[in-house]
Write a structure and sequence with these properties.
94 residues; single chain; mainly alpha; two-stranded parallel ribbon
Amino acid sequence: MGFSPGKQQAGRYVAGRLLSSLGTRLAHEFPDKTIFCLDPQVCPCSTMYRIHPSFLLWTLESLVKGEVVNQVKVEEPTAGYARQALAQMLKIGG
């Protein structure tokens, strides 16, 4: 089963790389649709499974104190793309 960018395929949804929970939910909510991952080598993202509310709380509390922990730095243009993506997610969520 393949996906052709730009070609409309009625009745199909395509999920990106993190298919495990998203794909399962979409397949359950839309049983009449074909749900598949674009990455043939997909595996659940172990990094995402490590995120725990207590670590998020620790990070947020550190930021309130003015301490930056676990900072990730990337060069432009990657940082610019990340800012654009974050702004779009906040716009959609808000």
